[in-house]
Design brief:
Structural class: alpha/beta
Distance between the termini: 46 Å
Order of helices and strands: EHEHEHEHEHEEEEHEHEEEEEEHEEHHHH
Strand content: 15-25%
Largest sheet: 7 strands, mixed
GO molecular function, one term: metal ion binding
CATH superfamily of the largest domain: Ribonuclease Z/Hydroxyacylglutathione hydrolase-like
Mean pLDDT: 94
Protein name: MBL fold metallo-hydrolase
Pfam families: Lactamase_B, Rhodanese
Radius of gyration: 22 Å
CATH topology of the largest domain: Metallo-beta-lactamase, Chain A
CATH class of the largest domain: Alpha Beta
Keywords: Metal-binding
Number of domains: 2
Organism: Salinirubrum litoreum
């Protein structure tokens, strides 16, 4: 235990981030007590449809222990109480104070730091003979993919935080990584593309339009700059590039049979926000571009086409197979009249957008190669929700 906090006064139950994720996925009601400072809680905290989140700072429990009022701080909270802090140390002490008072409490091991390092996977098959692994990051809603077929593999939209895992998982599937793809210049997380390339013999595939945004490392990594219609073979599978501008001007998705890796174009319950590249001044033009992309490139696809986005919301349910994917038919149904009405679509997208992702300008600069960022700083930059979606279509 860190010297910054006292040792627990009694043994307490612990819940790992993976176990907590499984409980949340199963629909268990979780009473969450976050004991970090208020600004840390307000900036980012664990949430979800079945989470009842509360904030009481650690110092109040220290003061209450002296005065004998620990139970009063949680007298309206349903048990068991899951206590959370930054690294699982202050929360372990608070959980022990509660346990000593006969209150059922458990500590989230590793705290929000380990929650942010959690990645879980779901898989599905694509003919002929392909497997797609979807990596889900519950802390931020980021999604990335490993596609494997006949001894070859490709990673799509990798996160730097999980770069080693993609390499290890490809090896576990008996596959060599052939390509590493970024569909666009991400604004919410630090890309793992260069890390995976450096660890393997894989070739980097980047949108050609990223050069216009200031991409600096294409030549250094011998990257292929991809345009609409380019094809790349992975085993018996063929990935076909398709331009999907809107969220960013350079976005390139990839068709794989009846699967579309769409980056940040559409999600399960929303569509992309249009203001992260050109700001408020360019948001309307980007929203119009996004409307045309959805109308001309996505909705004409067969209804059963599975769209694999780069993000999901922790407030939404996954598909029946556990993946955060959506079909073209579901997107069209949710859009309704917005699908064919550009003016209404633009108004919808620009209305009530959430705050921009934390540190998005620094993250973009890192992903373009304009800024050198060490791994720990990169991890800190991307903590928090991704906020890459516009207003939800769920209702």
């Amino acid at each position: 235990m860190s010297s910054d906090y006292p040792d627990p006064v009694t043994d307490v139950s612990a819940v790992s981030p993976a176990d907590l994720h499984d409980r949340l996925r199963a629909g268990e009601q979780i009473t969450l007590l976050d004991v970090r400072d208020r600004d840390e809680f307000d900036e980012w905290h664990l949430d979800g449809p079945t989470v009842d989140a509360h904030h009481v700072p650690y110092i109040k429990f220290v003061q209450a222990q002296v005065k004998g009022g620990v139970p009063d701080l949680v007298d309206d909270l349903a048990e068991p109480i899951t206590v959370v802090c930054g690294r699982g140390e202050a929360s372990a002490y608070v959980a022990s104070l509660l346990a000593e008072e006969g209150i059922e409490a458990r500590n989230l091991t590793g705290g929000m730091d380990e929650w942010a390092r959690l990645s879980v996977t779901e898989t599905f098959s694509v003919p002929p003979g392909g497997t797609v692994v979807q990596y889900q990051r519950p802390s931020s809603g980021c999604l990335s993919y490993l596609v494997v077929c006949d001894g070859e593999a490709v990673v799509i939209d990798p996160l730097r935080a999980f770069a080693d895992r993609y390499v290890d998982d490809a090896d576990a599937h008996g596959a060599d990584l052939k390509y590493v793809i970024d569909t666009h210049v991400h604004a919410d997380h630090v890309s793992g593309l260069r890390d995976v390339v450096e660890a393997t013999d894989a070739r980097a595939l980047l949108p050609k339009g990223a050069k216009k945004r200031g991409l600096t490392f294409a030549e250094e990594y011998d990257a292929t700059l991809v345009e609409d219609g380019d094809e790349f073979r992975v085993g018996d599978l063929i990935l076909t590039a398709v331009a999907l501008p809107g969220h960013t001007t350079e976005t390139v998705g990839y068709h794989l049979g009846e699967v579309l890796f769409a980056g940040d174009t559409v999600f399960r319950t929303s569509v992309a926000r249009p203001d992260l590249e050109a700001g408020d001044a360019g948001a309307e033009d980007h929203a119009r571009q996004l409307s045309r992309t959805i109308r001309d490139e996505i909705l004409p696809l067969p209804d059963r086409t599975r769209i694999c986005p780069a993000h999901y919301s922790t407030e939404e349910d996954p598909a029946d197979d556990g993946t955060y994917t959506v079909t073209v038919g579901e997107v069209e149904e949710r859009l309704g009249d917005l699908a064919g009405d550009e003016e209404a679509f633009v108004e919808f997208v620009l209305r009530d957008m959430p705050p921009r992702p934390a540190n998005y300008e620094e993250i973009i600069a890192t992903n373009l190669g304009k800024r050198e960022t060490d791994p720990e700083t990169a991890f800190e930059l991307e903590l928090g929700p991704n906020n890459c979606a516009a207003t939800s279509m769920a209702d």
